[in-house]
Amino acid sequence: MSRLYDTVEPAVIDEEMLKKAVEEQGPKEEAGKIAKQEGIDFGDVLSLRLDFLNILKIDNLWEFTKLTKLQLDNNIIEKIEGLESLVNLVWLDLSFNNIEVIDNLDSLTKLEDLTLYSNRISTIENMDSLLNLHVLSLGRNQLTDLENLRYLRRFKNLKTLNLSDNPFCKQDEYKQYVIAFLSNLEFLDYRLVDQQSRDAAIEKYQVSRDEMLHNEKQAEIKKEDETKRQQELEKHKNAYVELMNGPDLFEQMYAEDKEGQKLNEMPGLEDQLHSFKEKFMQICTQIFDFGIAEHEKREEEVKSFWECVEEAKQDNKRLGMVHIDEFTETKKRMLLEMSQMSDHKMVEQYARDYNDKIQVLWDKLMGLELQLVDQLEEVIKEFERNMQDMVGTFVENVQALLSQCRDLENNHHEKMMEIAIVTLEKVIKNELDDEISDDLKMLLVDKDTIINAVSSSHDVHLLKIDNKEDDIVTRINQSLKNLIEQIHQDEEITRNRMRVSEINNLIDHLREEMDNLEVMQN
Amino acid sequence: MDSSEMNEGEIHQIDSDDVIKEEDETENEEGEDLTEDAEALKAELAKIVVHPPSYEQSLMEEFDQAEFSPSYKDNLPKENLVLQYAENFRRQMVQLYRDRKPLFLNPVNECGVEKFVCTTIRPTLLEFKELYNWDGAAEFVADYLNIEPLKPEYELPKRLISPSTVLKRQKGNCFEYSTLLCSLLIGAGYDAYVISGYATKETCLADESRDICPLLKKKEEVQEEARKKEMKKYNVKPPRDLRSKFELKQEAKKEAEKQAEKEKQRKEEEERIAELEKPPPDPYFGLRIHAWVLVLSGKREVPENFFIEPFTGLSHPMDSSNYLGIESVWNNVNYWVNMQDCSEGVKGLSFDLGDSTVWEFMFPNNDKPLLKIPDAEDDLNDMDDDERKKYLDDEEHEVEKYLDMPPSWVDALKLSHRDFQMRCPHGKKTKVYKRAKLEKFAHYLMKDGLISRLSVYEDRELTDLMKVHEYYAHRSDKLTQKLTNHRTGQVCENFDPGRPRCLKEHQFKSSTPGPENERVMIFYHEARVDGLVKREETQTEMTEEYSNRDDFLFYKYVEFGKRAKKFGPQETSSANKGRPINKMIQKFHRNRNKPANEDIAEIIFHVAEDKIHISYHTEDVRIAASTREFLKPPNWDEKGAVLTFNPEMHQTFQVDPMLPMNKQVELYEMLMELLKAEEKCRNEVRDSQNEVRNILDDRTKEEAASELDISVYDTERNEKAKKHRRELERQQLEEKMRKQEMDIDYLAPFLAKIGNPEKLSKQQAFSLKEECLADLKQRLIDKANLIQARFEKESQELEKKQAWYQQNQVSMGKEDEEEYLTYCKEAIFRIHILDLRLTRHKEQAPHKYMQLEQKLRNDERLSEFF
């Protein structure tokens, strides 16, 4: 800390201070004069310097959204705050302040250069999102723990680091430690890191460094796998058949079916259960494969649709541009001729011609637009029809397969019933050899109970299958509807309005130009 | 048994007596008395007087016999046998086919010795990689030799000179050409043959004036068919065509008629020209003898049979109309006679040399697959086993008796590197084609590096020059081609990469070579920092095209005004001052990192009107582009002036009316930027102008100097390398000399004294040894004496000096004293060294003596006596 606390009165960032700074640092000379007349938007300022102002608290900076460079050095700031909205910041200077904790920097993801020199920071932390960091200065702080430096390994782009004048610098191994564990560094404490010292440092910390690298690699692989899995699942979700390639549906059927679970413990049921599960799974896999294949087909369809639409739009655009270019050429020629004419009547005649030409251009451009609208409408209709057909087949097939599931379940139910009754009889006759759990015993008291239990289990299973079917069908129909609506909105309405307004804007401009010219000549 | 052997047999059976009988009959008729009729006939016949053509035995070039090896001057017994065999073959052929022209079998060689043609072929693979492929070898032979036409053109030559001599004298007739080429091709592994036959006059005389020069033939442009647009499912329907179908049809019809008319006219014209250009009828058509080369498919991945014309080095297809007939074909192992009808030229001839019904071979050891005759096979099958065995034995036995071809009598073909590079006799050759003349020069022959010049003429008499195409090599200014169009005066020069300003092509008018005139320069833009591809100039305009620039600039156009005329004294600097610029246009590619509305597509600097016009790129979804126009502040070109700005100076059209208006400051700054850009552009234009001027200056200098580059690997021509090599050789020689000196023979002088006898007697040996040892002793003593003498001399001198010092010590200055002291030091050092040397000599001398004695004892000349 370079100055005493109460010698100067602490200041706050206010409108006046900002205005002054902006004006001082804004454009110079003539441009400055113009800017002053017009006023400067804080939102347009790209760099701002607020140094030696005894600022205690960072505040009132939310307007500076485009700011890329901010200097707040040589103040008495104690806490990093109020910078959340400055997302475009690339350079931030907070040196010579009284900051104790690194904090509130998470939104500044574009930051490349951060200076916290001469503060009171004791731990490196809370910078996880600053992955673009190139330059970091943490000199003259209270850093004591060398281990803490491993935190900096996450910054792959970090090339320049300043840690001088920290307590841990007095340790002998400080330099080698830093070089060994941050081997991407090119400059450390104002000096170039040469290959020789890097090799030496790495050799010294070979073992722990290798271990660390290994751990990092493992973590990375794990993360990759995780993302891959997520992506896969996402893809399956888009195909509306997620988790159908596993025992998920089957397990779900039993998840809320406590009685069924109990009943499954009945002796002699194992084989039956096993074959039921296998068959069930087979159908699920069929649904999954079919779903993925259909999804790919739909994707292909959508892709080819967009390609064609894009092509048509490009062709149309090209034609439109040709017309405009032609007109521009004519305009140039006519204006040149007009400027050389002295006869008033002739000029008027020309002006009339010119206006006619503008009208012709408008006709042409509007014609093209109408043509495109027609073409697109037709294509979209066809696309809609095809997509609906495809979704229809998909739904039908899935329903058919799920009804097979239901059949399986029915079969299974019947078998269960038989076995249950047989078991019940055995229990009643006390012929049962195996031990059975108490829960099951509770069910095996009389015929009604056991039949009720089996039936309710069956109902739960059927319900699950129905739910799944509903889920798939609603989702696919909904998304198709959304897609079609989106296409209608974007391609037919928005695009058309935009183009028409563009054409009118252009024509208006051309007319205005002519009028101006006439006025000038008159 | 096959048919060829049967033929052979038949021929052998014919007795030569038949011929003699016929002759006898004619003699008998003469002896009879003449009837009246006969007298009348005689009188009638007497009227017919024929003069034998005053055929001069063309003086054959005489060769110095001494320079040939014996194989040229004499025949081996085997060769004689082959010659007899050939003679027999010839006789039989004459017998069987009386109307056939004689065969070319055994002409004399340069030493007047008869040699069989097959043995004249000497398969050779020379060390030049260009000769490994047939086209390279054929071109080389065509270039390297000069043509000697046959005399007379309808008779076989009497003499066939060996290919080695042909290579030496660099000229030959068609047979010698073919033999040489065939030697090279067989050496390179081709299945090649010499053909003796008949050809058209143009071919025989190598008259190519009716052919289009191969260099001028246009390469067939591979027209890539426009890729048909893939029909996709959702392709939009094109707008309906509202024009009348009928009218369109009528129009198309008319167009087609016109086209047909034109086509017809063109055809007629072509026919007319073809008629005009037809060669005049040749009285000797079909009689002109010619020899060329046949290459059969199979070896060296040759897919199809073809002919090579040795005079031109070009290949001809098997149905070429240039060749009219084939008599015989041979290579280095066999000789075949054509038995096929050649009334329609060589079209449709079979070249299956194994088929003895169409090709009569001379030696039965034919490596060609022979056609099997099924009858013989059947016979063989019918025979009993024993019989068959016997038969087969017979056959084998018979085969062994056959004569095979003796090795070639010709010396190995040799070609020096230098001669190969000279290509043509004296390094120059001129060929005449239809409306074109091609001159070839050896590399480094011409001072300016010219290697070939192709002149194209309007007419066939080669008087009306149209354009000249010159090819250069090894020029230090990297010029490779120069095309001068004499009609338009246009000159186009092509350069290799490596010039200082990366010039690739330069087109200009020869009448106005100076700067600020019409020209086109194309550059190697990959090598240029500014990525300039092309610069086109006219007198008032300059257009530049760029590629791959960081600032996306790809086009620049400048329009110049007229130089303001100055009166008064001419300043020297005014000439260098550029012309005033009226207008500059820069065009840029789209920079995807910027929004289209801020990405400038085109800037036009209206310099004369003080206006700047900007067009922006079109956004992807729009069809119109934003534009902006600035008026320059009135005092923009004053130095240090404060430039003012007011909103009137700016006009804009924004495609998207919803966008907020630019702030005045932004506009002001934009204007400042534009002014800077204009200045920069102006400077660049001036630089371009200077560059053009510099390039032109360089070209003028280079043309005047026209230096040639010599590769460091070219030991023949590179003077420096040559010097270096000589130096190395000299050093090596010295090294060798020194080595020789080292193991000098210590007995030599003593042996010389007694007259170097072959063998030494014991007496001599002893005295020799004694003498040698005595000599060494003497020398050792002499050396010791010498050292002692020097030692004494040094000591005396030192003493003298010391005495002198003692005397003059008082009067001496410090410098003299120092000098004396150093002298003393050195002298004592020298004395000490001499002392040491003497002691060492004394120690070593006996050892040396002993050593020599030992050596002498072991010397092989003396050892037997000791």
Automatic annotation (TrEMBL), chain A:
The record's annotation in Pfam families points to: LRR_9
- Regions crossing the membrane: none
Q: Does the keyword Chaperone apply?
A: no
The keyword Lipid biosynthesis is annotated on this UniProt entry:
no
Q: Name one GO cellular component term.
A: cilium
| Annotated coiled-coil segments of the chain | none
Annotated SMART domains? LRR_SD22
- Indicate where this protein resides in the cell: Cytoplasm, Cytoskeleton, Flagellum axoneme
Q: What's in the keyword line of the UniProt record?
A: Cell projection, Cilium, Coiled coil, Cytoplasm, Cytoskeleton, Flagellum, Leucine-rich repeat, Repeat
Q: By its UniProt entry, which PANTHER family does this protein fall under?
A: DYNEIN REGULATORY COMPLEX SUBUNIT 3 (PTHR45973:SF12), PROTEIN PHOSPHATASE 1 REGULATORY SUBUNIT SDS22-RELATED (PTHR45973)
Family of the protein in this entry: Belongs to the DRC3 family.
Query: What is the protein name stated in its UniProt record?
Result: Dynein regulatory complex subunit 3
